[in-house]
């Protein structure tokens, strides 16, 4: 009984039996109340830092989950059964009277007993089994069942008809000269008497409607139908439908011929069509046809020469047609063994009844209505037996969807039926008006039910349930299929586009969901301050819902029914939230308290998350949102909250230090308080990032204040640590203090944590100039705090190493007092052992950076101790200085530790150079020290080019005369040493070292009065051998003095020039003038420290040569001003 026509007309109707939702007021489903949630943590108490930062952590944890777009895999957490959709047992067809039930029972038995056609593999062929099943469905007794069967058997058999749809053919033979054919079909029903087959030796022949009148046989078909002629094609498409009455199902057969239609053609027309010929075979056929036409003098020949050509036939017994009908391709057959045919023909066959001897038929009840009532009865029986299963394929029936609201069925099954209908829709015959109206009403009823479900999308299809989401996908696909049928109805079930109704349902559902949420979380009847906590929960719920819309629902709605559900929902909910917040913030502006400020701050963070969520999606512009500018009314609350944050941070740090024992935590080298401080600073930085204040000018003010507060808190913490360590009991004789090491580690960790937090407080560009990637104010604050904490670390380091000063001096003194008879390594061993023990302890207690700080401090202490030892031990043996030189190198190796300790460049800098120089000089003789004094002058470079002035000279050596010529030319930019702002300069020229030139005396220029740019042009001769001038350290020293008549002369500067590089010394002169060489400009300077170190070495010596050299230099120093 399930035919294509019946599928079309009955399946969709069974979803609901109710008027169209467009023609009546929608019935409101029961609103499911929102799930109760636990109340948020109460507002923090002023002064309670722990509670305040606990609340802050909860906020940050919530913000952390919103930093990126959600993934569907995260949201679809449950595969449990989907929520039950609303069902109503009263929906469906009306209840039947007993008389109607009996007539329906009779109708069902009649159908089984007089069924015709073959059964498919998935259909029940056992008549007794079918009759027994019907007895169970209708609940009749065996006696009643037997009586009903007898009555039906006595009834008249039904009249059958065959519905034939000739769809198309393919790969037909080309019968026309152009390589094509003009095919058409002739079809009809052949009775048993109309198919005689004459025996004999002739070739086997099949029946054909067009075998020709010459055979004299009568037309055997009781009725013949003809399709249209399809011109010039081998793959014709007809899609024509016919109905034939059947006398005897067991013997009648359907016969179909396909012919090539040929019109009479003249020679002229045949010639005109010659250019249409395709292939040599067609060409030959055309020539043959043209010849025939020419012989007839351009007129048509005998009729038999121009009859239609046979293309193939089909003979299909009626009893072979399946009960459910069939749509298949049949291979064309020849009419005789000599015929040549090819190709296939597609037919859709369905065997139906036109007259039935049943009570319902006699009362004028349509077969369509009987079909609906019977299938409804069958499904009710299956549901009651709890054995209902969806039919195995789309050939079942859409009538099962009628019970979708009384007992939910799988949307996948309903979708399969719709897809099957879509596949056959265009090829099927038009529906009777009754069935089309029924189908239209079914569409309307199902769409109404689906729209009611979509209005409560979040209740029936939660985003966290993968099973429910799959059901939603199938439901949307069903709705998408419904839209495809809309243009095919003369009686249209949709007054508007279905997409428009879906959009309206979604919008209404969004509003209803929001109103329920608002009433549950933050009723408008409550006072403003009491509504705040609930409003925060509401905004959070909206944010989570928008995440679900974007990750789960949006892709389904967009890909299936082309609706941008996310944009629709976001715009609507964002606008509703903005309206609620604007009103509430205006009401609370005059009621600002600490608790209100805290709630408003949290509320703003949630609103900012919604804005960022929209902006994070590519191509979204947040400037059109209703939340734009929402930050303005929150500014007073944010300022107040940040002030409280400053105080609470100090309270939190105070509490952390109070309980800190200054002992290292497990697996770390710092104590608990700095971990708390670092966490607080990190939370502050993260909160600022979440705040992301949009106004640049306001953000600059807020960020500057927050950075200053953070710096103040960091310094407050170091002060607390200092006080804490001062109160710690100290063990007597303890050289390394563990609490001090912990404090030093804490300060270093705090420096890094605070610096990182401050760098994270950058505000939007444009508020202030950027320096190094940070706003200038923030950079200054960061650098100032880093310098303060570096100084604090140095202070703690000095305090830590100060306990070791006495021991270090003791061991250095031990080295200085060790007799020359013991080896150097034995003398140094106690110091090295002491350092090894202490540094091993420090290494275990300190972080790497702090260990380096302590190593640098100890290194400086050691150098100063050795320098002090050298200063107190004068006129000692060279072995004394050699021992300390050995000690110095051993300490360098120890502190470098094969690259694990201090870098060599750091170790060999500063005091080390001074000490190393003194040790080297102490090992030198008096003359070597004097030579070093002059070498240092030659190495010295002036750092005061513009202060002491310049001196121009020319020097060369006259080998023939064996004399050195020094020409003082002029000076410039000398120091003004007189009260009149000028000077009276003169230049002293001398050679050194003195023991190189024992017979040479110094010479001087004339005094040039009242000038800073004197011109001398004076020539001086020094008779010295060239070999002496080439010695290392040999030089000419120029000393510029200011002549004073009433007091001692003033020192104005000096410069030295090595003799080894002047002309005549480097290479001998060859003839010519003796006055050669270019002038040399020397920058005047004052003696530096490295020059005076050699002088100090000589001061400690008692020999005559050293004392005379020192005495002469002391006389010169009397004329010098103090070093700047």
Describe it for me?
With 1124 residues, the protein is an alpha+beta fold. The protein has six domains: 1-11 and 93-157 and 356-385, no CATH class; 160-193 and 218-293 and 306-355, C2 domain (Immunoglobulin-like, Sandwich); 501-630, no CATH class; 637-765 and 773-795, Tetracycline Repressor, domain 2 (Orthogonal Bundle), CATH 1.10.357.50; 816-925, Methane Monooxygenase Hydroxylase, Chain G, domain 1; 928-1121, Sandwich (Immunoglobulin-like). The chain is 49% helix and 12% strand. It has 34 helices and 18 strands. α17 packs antiparallel against α18, α27 runs antiparallel to α29 and α29 (911-922) runs parallel beside α33. The radius of gyration is 56 Å and the shape is elongated. 35% of the residues are buried.
CATH architectural category of the largest domain: Sandwich
Strand order of the largest sheet: 4-1-8-7
- Stretches where pLDDT is under 50 for at least 5 consecutive residues are 1-44, 195-204, 211-221, 265-272, 277-284, 290-306, 387-401
Roughly how many Å apart are the termini? Answer: 119 Å
Sheet having the most strands: 4 strands, antiparallel
Count of runs of 4 or more consecutive helical residues: 34
Beta percentage is: 5-15%
Mean pLDDT across all amino acids: 78
What is the helical fraction, as a range of percent?
A: 40-55%
CATH class type of the largest domain: Mainly Beta
